[in-house]
Each structure stands twice: as structure tokens, then as C-alpha cells.
Amino acid sequence: MLTRRFDGKSKVVCGYPISIFFIVVNEFCERFSYYGMRAVLVLYFKYFLQWDDDLATSIYHTFVALCYLTPILGAIVADSWLGKFKTIIYLSIVYAIGQVAMAVSAIHDITDSDRDGTPNNMTFHVVLSMVGLFLIALGTGGIKPCVAAFGGDQFDDHQEKQRRTFFSVFYLCINGGSLLSTIITPILRGQTCGIYSQQKCYALAFGVPAALMVVSLVVFIVGSGMYYKAKPEGNIMLSVCKCIGFAIKNRYRHRSKAYPKRKHWMDWAEEKYDRLLIAQIKMVLKVLFLYIPLPMFWTLFDQKGSRWTLQATTMDGNFGQLVIQPDQMQTFNPILILTLVPIMESVVYPLIKKCGFNFTPLKRMTVGMFLAALAFVCAGVVQLQIDKTLPIFPSTSESQLKLLNMGNNQLEVHLPNNFTVHLPPAQIDDLTSKPEEGNNAIRFVNGLATDLNVSTAAVNFGIIEPLTSSNYSLLKNGKHTFSLKSGSQLCEYTIKFGFGSSYTIFIPSTFTFGPNCQESVTEVEEIKPNSVHMALQIPQYFLITAGEVMFSVTGLEFSYSQAPSNMKAVLQAGWLLTVAVGNFIVLIVAEIAKLPKKWAEFFLFASLLVAVCVIFSIMAYFYTYIDPTEIEAQFSQEKDEEDEDEKDKMRKTEEHVTKRGSVKSNDSDNAFKLSKM
């Protein structure tokens, strides 16, 4: 059945306004754009901009923090000046420009003047990417508090059931967009592209999210004529801030002992503000006080996109027929969320309740924080296993000597300080830095008396002169067949590589071409391939996601239940602020600690969260749950009684005045009669 909405613009299909379908598609595309870009961001910093792990992590968390600070600005602009619709449009344009800037910043050919695959003007790429990230943070954060609320505005009061269904679908789109993007964009990043030289295609990995953001904007604009657009009515956060500011200023003005103390410091705002507003702010401040320890959870949680992704680059991602990219491990988070939320709500929580345990929201949040700490303990244990497989590299104060015996007999080499080394024939002791992105560094040494041409489908090593070696070339994991040519003679040589290894392949002087030529080749493994499997990260992802479900979902539910009817946006802003502060804590702790070992940093963060968890549990123990509706009703009743008393006083006054007027009238009549007589 097709009917008209009350404003005469938006049609309704199956009980739902058509306008919400545009909003749902818009949200899916926007979330795909954001999470897709964010999934590959830290690897873009490390491998394209060539930053070290610490700088890449710092900038990543600064960006995430900005994304959770700007929603407060977006909410104020939408509620006070532009309205939700215009705010979404304008900031989405800013958002799309930022995504395009990121895609352009990842095109290496723009400044690759010598065409070697490496940008020659890295400053251009850094500046453009930072501008892009700032615009993205402003856009995604600014529209975050507007889109869901704007969707809710499309429903009439009698469509409460449809509104609830809309929000369920809305959050399903968030997780769906996140899941698909974290699968697809790492695959795009793994492709090679370029005009002059083929390199990892970060431009494509950022370009597709940029295209989806443009689609998101276009879809939202297309539905413009069908939306119900509520006018801005003022932002409650500004009123709250003004009231708190007045209370503090008034309390400071009356700090003398001559003035009697008041029950609560917010009571000093009674001279100017309504008592109900003050009571509502007291309820909000009570919850915000509980928020103080919460940023530490987000400090750990958001490192799954930085430290954990970097950890995965040193691991083996071979799952049989499927090869997982390091940044694809993040997909376990949305998959587990979609799985664990219904399991928790329908199985775990009811089972705990049946056992007679009062598992209150604050207790759930405490357990969630503890699970996040356990996740980082798991990450630290995994890192210890990884460190055992890494080669020992020389420090900045040390040097490295490479010895190569190209002869057929063992050599004895005498080094300073009476140090003797025995070199077997055709052996090398060569340690270099670990190859990045899971690639394998391969080079050939030609021990023949003639030139040797070495090539494979992916790389051409070129002509190697006698008794010299080729440069290292990077090859992906898997089987590779090399063609060894000398004149008209040919040898096909096949070897299978893992992840992150380094090999020197010797062609000895005794090498003979023929069907068994591969047996004469000597392979020296300089750096072992990544042997710790990425599957070992699954427990830490499970624990952090279980912690998120118990902490984040429950925390939002708790905040909503404890917030006054007109203050829910204030607590939402406070919740988002804890995420921003948590990301800033990553920068502070990492900068102060400066731990050389990653496993030690993981254990440090776990210890800090356990300490905060204990503090929060104590605060939660002394917290008293309230019913904001009941408190507001009491104030309304008191106000009604005061109004009734005021009306009674006014009624009595009017009666008294009327009575006096009647007496005066009689006196006047008598005087008139006397005058007549």
C-alpha cells in the first residue's frame, strides 16, 4: 500500500518512508569508505611514506582521535545552525575531497622522476595525505551524530516499531560495510599498478573508498526531495556548558565563608537556571564521572588497526588455498561482532541470570575491560614467539662483515682479536633487514666462468658476470621458476618461498646444464621465513571483540538508561570523547615508555588496563542506579504543585480585589443617593 507522509513529500512503502532507503545505502557506502581506507592506512605510512613503526602508529592514532573529537562539532553545527540535512551534505563533500586527496597522494608516479618506483618528492605525498586525513576526520566525525538521528526523524510518532527496525538495519550496514571493506581493500592494496613502474597499489586501495564516498553523497542528494528536514532547535550541549560555567563562576564569586554551603556545587546555578535542568545535569555528571577510566579500554582496542596489523606483517598468512594479507586480519572483528552480539544477548546473559548472578551493566563493562587486557597478554605471547624467529641485526654502533667463499674448498679466515672463521665452499653469512610486506629478498651469485642470465615471470635479474652477484629482488610467497641461461644452454630451476625470507642462490663453478641441473644449485637461507602463523592472532581478536561487545554495547545501553530524556546526546558526546582520549593515550604511553621490545609494550598496556579495571570496579561498586524518568517526574510534580499554589494565591488575590471593589461600589452608590437627596 502506498500512502503520503504527513508533510506531503515522503512516500511510504510497507510502512517505511522511502527516504530511509537512501539513508541506509548512504551509511553503507560511507562506512565502507572509512573502514576501507583505515584498514590499509598504517601500512601506507610504513611502506609508501617509509615511516618507522612508531611514527606510523602515532599518526594513525592521532587520526582516529580526531575522528572521534569532531562529532561534538558536527552535533553543535547541526542542532544550532545548519540542521542535520545541510550538515551531512556539506561535510560529506569535505569528506569526499579528503578521500580523493588520499588516493592521489598514493600515486607514486606523480613525483617518480627517475622512474625507479620510489617517489622523489616525498614531501608532496606526506602533505597531501595529511590534508586528506584532516578532511576525512572532519567529514566522518561531523556527520557521525547526524545520519542516524536524521534517519530517525523520517518516522512519525506512530511508527515506533519501524524506527527500531531501521536502527537495527542501520547498524547492520555499519558492520557490513566494515566487514566487506576490510576484506576488499587489502586485496586491492596487494595488486601492482603504475604508469612507469609497477608497485603496490595503494592508490587503488584508497581510490575505491573515495569512489564509494562519492556514491554515498550522490545517493543522499538524490533522496533530498523525500526527506523530512527538522529545523535546528538549539544544541543542548551548549546549554549544559553554559549552566556548568555559570555554576562554577557563581560558586567562585561566593567563595567566602559568609555564604552558606549548598548541597551540590551545581546548585549555585539556581539563580539563573531551572531546577529541572540542574537536576538533569547532575545525573549526567554522575555518569560522566564513571567515564574517567574508560579511555584506557579504547587505548588497547584501537591498536588492532596499528600494532596488531604491523605484528601480522611478520607472520605467516598461508591458510592452505587462502593467503591472508596482514591488514585482512582485522576482518575477524566485524565477523565476531555479528556472531557474538546475538549469542551474548540470547544465551550468555540469560544463562548467567538463571544462575542467580546479578550481572549488572557496570559488571559487564568491567569484565569487558579485563578481556581486552587478556587480549594484549595474548598479543605479547605471540610477539615473544615471533621474536625468536627474527635474525639478530647489528645496532647503530655495530658493523656487519659479509664473507663469501666462491671456491670449491673450505677457507680459513683470520679476523682481528684472534677470531677465526671457517667458510665452507659456496657459503655466505649474510644478514640484512627483514624484507617488508612478507616479500622474499632473493639474489643470485654466478660462480661460472661465463655470463649468466637469470629471470623469472615476476623479475628479471639480468646478466650476472662471472664471480659476481645480482642485486636483491623481492618476490611474493609461493612457487617461482627461474630460467638460467648461458649462451644456448638453459636450466629451469624451481623453488618455493614462504613469507619474509632472504636467500642467496649460488651457481657453483661445477654447475652443469641438463635435466638434473637443479641439483647443482646451492641455496643459502640468510633470513628464515615467517614461521609464526597468523592464526595465532585469532585468540587475541576473539578476546578483544568479546570485550568490545561487553564493554561498548553495554556501555551505550547503560548511558542511555541513566541519561535524562533531553541529555542523551550529551552522554553520546562524552562516550565518543573517551575514544578520542584513548587514542591520545597510545601516543603518550608509547612516547614515555620507549620500550625497545614490542612484547614488553603489549604487556605494559595490559597491566595498565588491569589497574584501571580495578579502579573502575570500585567506582562501579559505589554507583547507585537511577531512573531519570522518575526523577524528572518528581520535579515536574513539584513544579505543578508550585504552579497550583501560585494559582491559588492569584485566585485569592483576585477574590480579595473583587470583594474590595464591590464594597467601594456600594459606598459610591450611597454617596450619590445622599447627594441627590
Tell me the radius of gyration: 35 Å
CATH class of the largest domain: Mainly Alpha
Structural class: alpha+beta
Second rung of CATH, namely the architecture of the largest domain: Up-down Bundle
Helical content, roughly? Answer: 55-70%
**Structural domain count:** 3
CATH superfamily of the largest domain: MFS general substrate transporter like domains
Beta strand %: 5-15%
Multimeric state: single chain
Shape: elongated
Region (Disordered): 635-677
Organism: Oryzias latipes (Japanese rice fish)
Biased composition (Basic and acidic residues): 647-658
GO cellular component, one term: apical plasma membrane
Walk me through what this model shows:
It is a single chain. The chain is 57% helix and 12% strand. The strands form seven sheets. Strands 12, 15, 16, 19 and 20 form a five-stranded mixed beta sheet that branches. A four-stranded antiparallel beta sheet has the order 14-13-17-18, with no helix packed on it. It is of the alpha+beta class. The protein is elongated. The protein has helices at 19-39, 41-48, 53-105, 122-153, 160-190, 202-222, 236-253, 275-290, 295-301, 307-312, 332-354, 361-389, 538-562, 568-593, 598-621, 628-676, and strands at residues 2-4, 11-13, 16-17, 192-193, 199-200, 318-319, 322-323, 404-405, 411-415, 419-423, 427-428, 440-446, 452-455, 460-464, 468-469, 473-475, 478-486, 489-497, 502-507, 522-527. Strand 9 and strand 10 (419-423) form a beta hairpin. Helix 1 (19-39) runs antiparallel to helix 4, helix 3 crosses helix 6 and helix 9 (295-301) packs across helix 14. Residues 635-677 are annotated as: Disordered. Keywords: Cell membrane, Glycoprotein, Membrane, Peptide transport, Protein transport, Symport, Transmembrane, Transmembrane helix, Transport. The chain crosses the membrane at residues 12-35, 55-76, 88-110, 122-143, 164-184, 204-228, 283-301, 332-352, 364-386, 569-590, 602-623.
